[in-house]
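Why show two proteins at once? Because comparison is the fastest way to build intuition. When a single record is shown, students tend to memorize it. When two are placed side by side, the eye starts asking what differs. So, the first record is below.
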Amino acid sequence: MLLKVKRGWELPENAATDESVYVNRRALMKGLGAGVIAAPSLLASMKSAHSAIEEDPTAKLYPVDRNEKYKGERPLDEEEKVLAYNNFYEFGSHKYISSAAQAMPLRPWTVTIDGLVEEPMQIDFDSLIGKVQLEERVYRHRCVERWAMTVPWSGFTMDQLVKIARPKSDAKYIMMKTLADESSMPGLKAGWFPWPYTEGVRIDEAMNELTFLATGLYGKPVPKQNGAPLRLVLPWKYGFKSIKSIVSFTFTSEQPVGFWEELQAKEYGFWANVNPEVSHPRWSQAYEELLSSRERIKTRVYNGYGEYVAHMYDGMEQQVGERLFR
């Protein structure tokens, strides 16, 4: 499908899912039916990919103990639908990229830690996972497009990676990058996008107890389409902040510009904290639609995680206005 950029880095209208897809329950049901029910061969391939754990040297680590402090407050979404419904523009601008994502190579996988750190390093993913304490957490996920889900992530708190990195005192932010492999990612041919995918967080956000680097999902290594082998999970922010398939962490004194922020900062700003009172320019954020049940519910500020994160933004409302939540 061809996408047309109107001017500069303006986001093409068909690069983001149309509002009606998320408002119209029948449209969402139809989409899920086409992607899951009506395509058994695709579903079989995803199950195979998620069950082929003998090829992953970290597979023996799962399942890990669940941290019951983080319960999600909702029933878990169906694994099959979570594996079948994904945003990963490196493999296509639609939701059903799971089959294409299986081409992404996961070994070797090197993670670079550089910038304002005591000693820049490159570390193999399998070595990194041996240096951290894994656990499982059930988190709610809220996409800027208004769909939502509740899933059990396995992984480790990001503060453990920060401690490994040993940042210098003038490091205020962390910029992350996704793998950009032209041999397996056809979406990279879309030259109007500012590849590679980048995102950033402030150091205090990285150190928050909720901030999670996921390595597993549903008690197994995280599937490729969901961000293998290492992805960020920020449950109080819109989903585009939770960068997938991370290959680098750069500590910096300057606020990074994320992938979607570079494309259209008015719609996808740096903070991206969930707020029902601040609408997206093209749709309201007052409610969300659950992926499995298709139930429409009211959106909560910070996605309901305010008790953990609100203090980090005290006094910032007047400084940045509504951009705080974009």
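Second record. Ask yourself what differs from the first in the token line.
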Amino acid sequence: MIAILHKYFPELTVTQIKQFELLQSLYEHWNAQINVISRKDIELLYERHVLHSLGIAKVMSFKSGTKIMDVGCGGGFPGIPLAILFPDSQFYLVDSIGKKIKVVNEIASAIGLTNLKAEHKRAEEVKENFEFIVSRAVTEFPAFYKWVQNKVSKKQFNNLPNGILYLKGGDLKEELKSFEKRVVLYDLKDYFDEPFFDTKKVVYLPM
């Protein structure tokens, strides 16, 4: 339940708490029509989707005016929870499946998110640049890197250099071999106590 968010993010404002609270009923409603979250996970929405998305916030606190693209956002993760947490940053969510983008736009509108735009598009078609690219395990990391390598802005003003923040689980040694000198791994078990996070990581690649 939403108590899990208070545990790790005690500074949430009244508005943010209300927005997070609305997610359960909205995702249940939309999931019944368009399957964006597995049936077994909908009960654990706050742990497995919302808090998992906010793992990125434990690594990186986006400054006001930061532009972030969420690639392959599915039903809106990690983009929607991050957009709630960072209302002064701009989020652009893309997915190649149009009906998932419909869900994202409906939910964003229902909770009054004004700093999020979602479009039915592939990452390769996006012309803009962003300070950060985020995603949640849409594909193997080398393939993802190819999609987004030209989309990172040169304008630096955050605490970490611009780059990719990628949520991924399991043993990543082989997958990240060609990036091993540049990539930084953050274990989510260092931030969250729940067993679900034991093998989950944020992969950070400065560009």
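One difference worth noting in the second protein: The radius of gyration is 16 Å.
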